[in-house]
Amino acid sequence: MLSTLLQQHQAAFGPVLPVDLNGADVCRLDFSATNPSLATADLRDSTSFEQVVQAMLTAQNARIGVGGYLENRIIYRRSPGLFGDPALPARSLHLGVDVWLPAETLVLAPLAATVHSLADNASFGDYGPTVILQHELEGTTFYTLYGHLGRREYDNLRKGQKLEKGAAFATVGPYPENGDWPPHLHFQVMADMQGRSGDFPGVALPSEQKQWAALCPDPNLILQSRWL
User: Domain-by-domain residue ranges, the chain?
Assistant: First the structure.
């Protein structure tokens, strides 16, 4: 399994962001229905949503928030049309890790890579500018996805471009260009792209957790944050 391979080679990975995700100024953020601060928040308004995020960080004396892998989240109700038919069970199980930090923070390649595909998924609540990198490790191909990026650096990338480990290839985007979210990086690992290009589901049905977790292993095997 890809998760076993990533765990065996954790020393091979560089940082995804030029910040210490093990620092005392990092905390875990909860976006599930158990968080009372989300109950009355206007999450469709990105300015209000960002104020909620900042309040959560301030309450924990932190400036960077992390979390989300396999978290059953309430926040996708802000864009129900994107995450499923309102008459059916909603996709709410998050398949990546989110790192909430300032826009324009650099995004780095954790391993040598080829740009697999690019897309500006510009619908409200979507990824916004998105980059998918392809990696090889011990003869195994896998992919990493970077969502909610800034358009300036994204526009300079091209499919098939080679990136060295540690190369800064993107930045965290501001809203509304990042899909209209408070600034953060969505980081996800995929064992197989399933024929997709420039996009990949980042949220799944909770009832399908087992199959999606096998396809999208824990991104913290690369991030290696003690808070996750």
Answer: 2-221
Q: pLDDT by residue (tens digit) across 88-130? A: 556 689 999 999 999 999 999 999 999 999 999 998 889 999 9
Instruction: Give dist(CA 117, CA 161) in Å, integer.
Output: 10
Class of residue 87 by CB neighbours under 10 A (exposed 0-12, middle 13-18, buried 19+): exposed
The CA-atom distances, in angstroms, between 6 and each of 48, 140, 186 are 37, 10, 19
Main-chain phi, psi angles of 118, to 5 degrees:
-140, 150
Q: Are 228 and 67 in contact (CB under 8 A)?
A: yes
Report how far residue 7's alpha carbon sits from residue 1's, in angstroms, rounded to the nearest whole number.
10
What architecture is domain 2-221? Distorted Sandwich (2.70)
pTM above 0.85, yes or no: yes
Gap between the Cα atoms of 216 and 144, Å rounded: 10
- The 10s digit of each residue's pLDDT in 6-51 is 999 999 999 999 999 999 999 999 988 888 888 777 888 889 889 9
Alpha-carbon gap, residue 138 to 21, rounded angstroms: 26
